C-alpha cells in the first residue's frame, strides 16, 4: 500500500468512494421512502454521480484531471519523472506536506485559517532535535518526540484561546504566530549551533523518513488496506440494508475494491523495484485513516462540519462552538508538529530556515487543491493527501526540469489559483442549483 | 375546556427603562394553534424568549402541563418539551437533512455515529408529518427550498418529543405554494395534540391556521380572540389600537383608544 497518485485518484473518482466517508455520499433520492431494500443498480449509481458533478458536487474529480495533466506534462518533458526512484522520492517528499495539510483541512473546515503551521512545524522539529543532542540533553527519541508534539499542540491551544476568547480573527492571530514562531526557530537554532544547523544523530528518528518497508511488509500493508476498505464498505452497506435504507450496490463496491486493488498492487510492485514502500508512507496512511474516521464517523467530526457550515446553527443545537474551534487548532498544532518531525527526519537536521520558504504556501495549497473549501464546511481529509501529491509532483517535476526558482513560484501559484477557481466556480454552480 | 399546556400568568420583563412586557397572561392548549400577533415592538419575541428562558421574566408565573416551572435556558425548555423554530431556521447548509435533524444530539454506537439509525428515524419523522416533497434525507440542506427547510426545522423539533412548538414567522420568506405546505404542516402538528404557537405578521396565514389569536400591544395583552368568531378587521384594530392599561413610565392619556 502506498500513497500512489493512481490509488487515490481511482478511488476518489466516485463520490463517497473513500473508505471512511459516507456522510456526504449522495444517495438515491427516493421520492417515497423505501421500506424494502431497493434495487439500486450500477448504472443508476453512475448517473447519479454524473448529475452531482454537473450540479457542482465535483468531489475529487478536478484533482484526478490535474494529476493526469501533470503526469502527461512532466512524463513527456522528463524521462526520469516516472522512474521507480522518483516514485519513491515523491512518496518521501509529500509525507510532511500531507501530514501538516491534514491539520489545515480541519482548520479550513471550521471556516478559519492557520498561517502559523509552517513555523509551528519547525518549532516541533527544532524542539525534538535539540532534546536529542547527544552532547546535551540526550533524551530518548520517544520522549523528545512526545515533548515536541506537546509543545506544538500547546501552541495551537494558545492561539485558539486568543481567537475564541478575545474574538480576534484567526487570520490575524496566526499571522502574528507566523512571525513569532519563525523568530523562536531562529533564536533556538542560532543559540545552539554556530553554523545555524543542528544535526540529528538518533537512528530511530532519522529512520522515520529514511527507512523503507521490506518487500513482504509492503505487500502485507497493501493487502490489509484493500481488505480493510472492502470490509468497511460491505459493513456500511449491510447495516443500511438491515435498516431498510438504500445502499451502495454490490457491483459498485466490487468495482471500487478491484480498482483499489489494481492500483495498490502496481504501486507496491513499483516501489519494491526501487527501495520499497517508505515507512513514512505507512505513517501518513495511518494518520489519514484515523483523521478521516474522526472527521466523518464521530460526533466531534460532525460538529466540525456544523461549525463550518453555520456556527449559529451549531450553537443553537447546543454545540460548544468555542470548544470545537479550540480542539481544531490543537489538531492543527499537533499535525504541524508531526509534519515538522518528519521533515527534520528526512533532512536529518534542522536549520535557521526550517519551516520557511514555500512550506506554508504548499500545505495550504495542498488542502485547497485537494478540494477543501476556503469558505468552510466542505472538504475531506483525503484532500490533504491528494493535494500534497499534486503540489509535490509539480515541485518534483519542476526540480527535474531544473527550472529557475522564479518560474517555479509562478507555476505553483498558478496551480493554486486554478484550484481556488474550481472551488469558487463549483460553489456558484451549487448555489445556482439550490433554490435558496 | 382542557387545562392549558402552557400558562403564563402576569409575566413582566423590563430592559432598563423599557417595559417590554407588562403583566401578560398567555396560554396555549394541547392540540391548538395559538397565533401570537402584534406590531413590531409589541413584545412577541420577548414573551417567547421569556418562555424558553433566554430572558427570564422579572415577575409572573409560568405553568407547564399544570405544574409551576422555572425555565432558565433553552436546555431547560427542551427538557420540558418546548422547542422554538426560529425565523432564520438555524440549519447548517453544508450538512444533509439527517445530520441537521440530529445536530448536537447525534446517536452513536460507542464513538461511531450511528448513521443508518439516524437516517431511519429522520425518514420516519418526516413521513409521520407527511413531508413527502423532500426526496432523500441525505441531500444537503443547501439544495432545499425555503418551505422544505422550514419543514426540516419543524421536523427536527418534533422529533425530540416536544409538546409545545413555537414557530417564529414560519412563512415570512416563503412563496405561495411553500406557505401552503408549511401551514398544512402546522395544522398536522396540532392534530397530533401538540401545542403550537405561531408568531406572524401575516394575518391571512394566521386566519388560515390558528384556532385562537393572542394580540399584544405595547407589551400588554389586549385581546384573545377565537378565530371562528372574529374578523381580520377586529384583529387589525386590536393590534393598532387595542385598549392598553397602565404603562409604567408612559402617560396614560393617549395610550388608550385614540
Characteristics:
heterodimer, A: 436 residues, mainly alpha, 17 helices, globular, B: 258 residues, alpha/beta, Rossmann fold, 6-stranded mixed β-sheet, 4-stranded antiparallel β-sheet, 8 helices, 12 strands
Task: Walk me through this protein's architecture.
The complex is a heterodimer of chains A (436) and B (258). With 436 residues, chain A is mainly α. Chain A has helices spanning 5-12, 42-54, 61-77, 84-109, 117-132, 141-165, 170-192, 203-208, 215-242, 250-273, 279-297, 299-309, 311-316, 321-347, 359-369, 382-400, 405-433, and strands spanning 197-199, 349-351. Chain A has a two-stranded antiparallel ribbon. In chain A, helix 5 (117-132) runs antiparallel to helix 6, helix 11 crosses helix 12 and helix 15 crosses helix 16. The longest helix of chain A has 29 residues, at 405-433. Chain A starts with a helix and ends with a helix. In chain B, helix 4 crosses helix 5 and helix 5 (146-159) packs parallel to helix 6 (176-191). Chain B has a six-stranded mixed β-sheet, sandwiched between helices. A four-stranded antiparallel β-sheet of chain B has the order 2-1-4-5, with helices on one face. Chain B has helices at residues 44-51, 74-80, 97-101, 115-128, 146-159, 176-191, 203-209, 232-241; strands at residues 6-15, 18-28, 33-37, 59-64, 67-68, 82-85, 108-109, 112-113, 164-168, 195-199, 212-217, 220-226. Chain B has eight helices and twelve strands. Chain B is 31% helix and 25% strand. Chain A binds chain B through residues 22-33, 239-240, 242-245, 297-299, 302-303, 305-306, 308-310, 312-314, 316-319, 376-378, 430-431, 433-436, and chain B through 74-75, 86, 88-96, 99-100, 103-106, 108, 111-113, 115-117, 119-120, 123, 126-127, 132, 135-140, 142-146, 149.
Amino acid at each position: 500500500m502506498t500513497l500512489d497518485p493512481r490509488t487515490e485518484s481511482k478511488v476518489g473518482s466516485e463520490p463517497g468512494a473513500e473508505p471512511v466517508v459516507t456522510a456526504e455520499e449522495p444517495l438515491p433520492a427516493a421520492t417515497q421512502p423505501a421500506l424494502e431494500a431497493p434495487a439500486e443498480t450500477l448504472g443508476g449509481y453512475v448517473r447519479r454521480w454524473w448529475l452531482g458533478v454537473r450540479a457542482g458536487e465535483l468531489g475529487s474529480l478536478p484533482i484526478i484531471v490535474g494529476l493526469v495533466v501533470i503526469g502527461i506534462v512532466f512524463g513527456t518533458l522528463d524521462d526520469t519523472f516516472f522512474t521507480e526512484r522518483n516514485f519513491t522520492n515523491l512518496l518521501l517528499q509529500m509525507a510532511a506536506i500531507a501530514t501538516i495539510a491534514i491539520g489545515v483541512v480541519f482548520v479550513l473546515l471550521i471556516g478559519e485559517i492557520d498561517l502559523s503551521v509552517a513555523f509551528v512545524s519547525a518549532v516541533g522539529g527544532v524542539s525534538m532535535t535539540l532534546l536529542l543532542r547527544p552532547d546535551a540533553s540526550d533524551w530518548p527519541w520517544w520522549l523528545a518526540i512526545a515533548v515536541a508534539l506537546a509543545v506544538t499542540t500547546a501552541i495551537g491551544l494558545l492561539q485558539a484561546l486568543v481567537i475564541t476568547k478575545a474574538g480576534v480573527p484567526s487570520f490575524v492571530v496566526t499571522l502574528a504566530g507566523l512571525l513569532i514562531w519563525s523568530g523562536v526557530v531562529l533564536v533556538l537554532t542560532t543559540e545552539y549551533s554556530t553554523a545555524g544547523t543542528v544535526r540529528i544523530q538518533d537512528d530511530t528518528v532519522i529512520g522515520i523518513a529514511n527507512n523503507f518497508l521490506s518487500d513482504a511488509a509492503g505487500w502485507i500493508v497493501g493487502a490489509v488496506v484493500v481488505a480493510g476498505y472492502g470490509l468497511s464498505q460491505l459493513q456500511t452497506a449491510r447495516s443500511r440494508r438491515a435498516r431498510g435504507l438504500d445502499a451502495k450496490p454490490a457491483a459498485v463496491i466490487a468495482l471500487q475494491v478491484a480498482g483499489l486493488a489494481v492500483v495498490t498492487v502496481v504501486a507496491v510492485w513499483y516501489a519494491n523495484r526501487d527501495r520499497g514502500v517508505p515507512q513514512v508512507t505507512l505513517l501518513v496512511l495511518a494518520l489519514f485513516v484515523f483523521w478521516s474516521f474522526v472527521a466523518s464517523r464521530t460526533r466531534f467530526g460532525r460538529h466540525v462540519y456544523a461549525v463550518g457550515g453555520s456556527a449559529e446553527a451549531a450553537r443553537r443545537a447546543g454545540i460548544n462552538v468555542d470548544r470545537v474551534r479550540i480542539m481544531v487548532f490543537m489538531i492543527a498544532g499537533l499535525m504541524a508538529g508531526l509534519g515538522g518531525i518528519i521533515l527534520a527526519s528526512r533532512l536529518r537536521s534542522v536549520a535557521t530556515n526550517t519551516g520557511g520558504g514555500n512550506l506554508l504556501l504548499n500545505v495550504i495549497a495542498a488542502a485547497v487543491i485537494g478540494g477543501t473549501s476556503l469558505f468552510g464546511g466542505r472538504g475531506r481529509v483525503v484532500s490533504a493527501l491528494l493535494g500534497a501529491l499534486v503540489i509535490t509532483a509539480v515541485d518534483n517535476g519542476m526540480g527535474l526540469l531544473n527550472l529557475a526558482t522564479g518560474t517555479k513560484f509562478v507555476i505553483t501559484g498558478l496551480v493554486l489559483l486554478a484550484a481556488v477557481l474550481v472551488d469558487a466556480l463549483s460553489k456558484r454552480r451549487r448555489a445556482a442549483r439550490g433554490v435558496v | 375546556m382542557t387545562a392549558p399546556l402552557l400558562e403564563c400568568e402576569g409575566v413582566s420583563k423590563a430592559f432598563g427603562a423599557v417595559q417590554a412586557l407588562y403583566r401578560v397572561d398567555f396560554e396555549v392548549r394541547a392540540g391548538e394553534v395559538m397565533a401570537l400577533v402584534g406590531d413590531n415592538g409589541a413584545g412577541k419575541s420577548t414573551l417567547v424568549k421569556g418562555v424558553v428562558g433566554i430572558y427570564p421574566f422579572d415577575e409572573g408565573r409560568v405553568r407547564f402541563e399544570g405544574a409551576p416551572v422555572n425555565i432558565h435556558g433553552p436546555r431547560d425548555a427542551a427538557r420540558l418539551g418546548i422547542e422554538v423554530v426560529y425565523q432564520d431556521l438555524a440549519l447548517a447548509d453544508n450538512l444533509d437533512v439527517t445530520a441537521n435533524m440530529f445536530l448536537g444530539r447525534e446517536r452513536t454506537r460507542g464513538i461511531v455515529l450511528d448513521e443508518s439509525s439516524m437516517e431511519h428515524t429522520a425518514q420516519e419523522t418526516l413521513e409521520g408529518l407527511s413531508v413527502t416533497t423532500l426526496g432523500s434525507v441525505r441531500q444537503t440542506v443547501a439544495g432545499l427550498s425555503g418551505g422544505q427547510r422550514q419543514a426540516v426545522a419543524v421536523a427536527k423539533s418534533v422529533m425530540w418529543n416536544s409538546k409545545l412548538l413555537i414557530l417564529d414567522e414560519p412563512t415570512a420568506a416563503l412563496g405561495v405554494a411553500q406557505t401552503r405546505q408549511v401551514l398544512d404542516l402546522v395544522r398536522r402538528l396540532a392534530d397530533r395534540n401538540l401545542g403550537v404557537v405561531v408568531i406572524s405578521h401575516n394575518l391571512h396565514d394566521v386566519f388560515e391556521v390558528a384556532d385562537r389569536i393572542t394580540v399584544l400591544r405595547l407589551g400588554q395583552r389586549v385581546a384573545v380572540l377565537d378565530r371562528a368568531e372574529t374578523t381580520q378587521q377586529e384583529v387589525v384594530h386590536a393590534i393598532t389600537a387595542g385598549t392598553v392599561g397602565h404603562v409604567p413610565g408612559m402617560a396614560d392619556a393617549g395610550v388608550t383608544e385614540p
